[in-house]
Amino acid sequence: MNDNTNTNGNLFLGLDSSTQGVKGTLIDAEFGVVLEDAVNFDSDLPEFETEGGVHRHADGLTITSPPIMWVAAIDILFEKLKAAGCPFSSVVAVSGSGQQHGSVWLKSSAVDALAGLDSGLALRDQLADVFSVADSPIWMDASTQSQCDEREAALGGPQAVADLTGSRAYVRFTGNQIAKIYQKDPEAYGQTDRVALVSSFVAALLAGKYAPIDTSDGSGMNLMDIRTREWSPEALACTAPELAAKLGPIAPGHKTVGKIHSYFTEKYGFSPECTVIAFSGDNPNSLAGLRLQSAGDVAISLGTSDTMFGYLLDPKPSGVEGHIFANPVDPEAYMVMLCHMNGSLARERVRDSAAGGSWDAFGEAIANTPAGNDGRVGIFFFEPEISPPTANTGTFFFDRNGDSIDNLTPESEARAVVESQFMSMRSHGCGIGLEPSNILATGGASANAAILKVMSDVFGVPVYTGEQTASASLGAAYRAMHGWTCRVKGQFVPFAEVMSGAPSFSKAVDPDPAAHEVYSSMLPRFSELEQRVAG
Ligand code: XUL
Prior knowledge:
By secondary structure, the protein is α+β, with helices and mostly antiparallel strands. The chain contains 21 helices and 26 strands.
């Protein structure tokens, strides 16, 4: 946050409707954060009785959230921003982010309700009756395995679904959720005029009319042809009838939806000229927020689980793991998202067992051991892993001949956990087309120099760090600036050009070519051992 409160210039607002709440980030034309505020569903809207923003159902698989709560939160957020002195009248564009995959089911009465929003009333009182499904399935829902199986069978198997839509059928992906609602509640399906995503729904609120689903968030549905960026007729046909009309149009993330509705100009003081730019998913917005802007730009977020995002032109969708999405800031490009479940928790467990709970000692252990660990490998699946997908948990150690051994020395074990995490990311990333030319490290563990050195050596590219976290609302503000610039110039302007004045990231470490060579020659053996463990 800087103290730049210059309101003479243009401001850009990013909104993030996440699982737990709604956040707003206002930036100026110099990329400074002017104001941020947030609403928490559980504490600010306790009447909806959510825990972590969701309702968990008795079957243990179904997880939903009431969309009217998301609506109510928008008014509260804008009230908070107003109370903080938000210069709404200088906001020239707003864009946003939504938790991915969640769906919002609207009756045809939504069209008039959105268009006729009255600034004398609250949003929630005017939109309470527009939902054909009162509790929306969200990304945590895992109740659609049978629909995934059916749709994969209809479309030729997991690899065919990945080739067509960018990912194999996942229980949380919206197409499978839509198939379930059609099968279980055909009446609600029949009453539905529009199925929006969380992202396109919040855009619709602001514009007072249906908003297109953007191609990037649309990639998380198992319904869009990832190459043409249009709804796939085959994928729609095996989901539910008349679905194309209910989904409406799809558009690239820089597209203008329309002007902000008079509800927001009258109530909060937005300018009637303020433009609403298409909203997208939270992961695509994080990619924009980290300013991954050309092929080879990769970010690794070292969090509870580790996530790797990347910008690429030539994806290789996998029927086993990982996601290819249309890129949110480049209509010709793609983005990759790969999640590794055993991230910080695994590093912390090894820090505790092998380095007495001290990050300094953990770092020294890495410094005292050679790149490649003399051929020894450790695989740490404390939790069932996502990449590679396996239910096989435990720790697994191998000597240089690939024979199983009981343990490693503590120093070797500290090195092994970090090496195996990055070797795994390299091999799985490469498997779906990712070839990093530089890496931006974010998240808690990116402060650890020893970890960053191994990352740089494994991938053979420089690693950068910055103040910035993978913030979806900041990314949405950047995308508001990007979409607005494209509109004002009347043509597509590269995101990198619009972002050229943003603060640069600093280089933390360059790779050591000799160490990189060690890892490259170890990689096939590592992948074989990992596969052996994953089963
Ligand atoms: C991504 C996913 C989550 C949600 C969280 O596929 O399911 O990251 O987007 O909001």
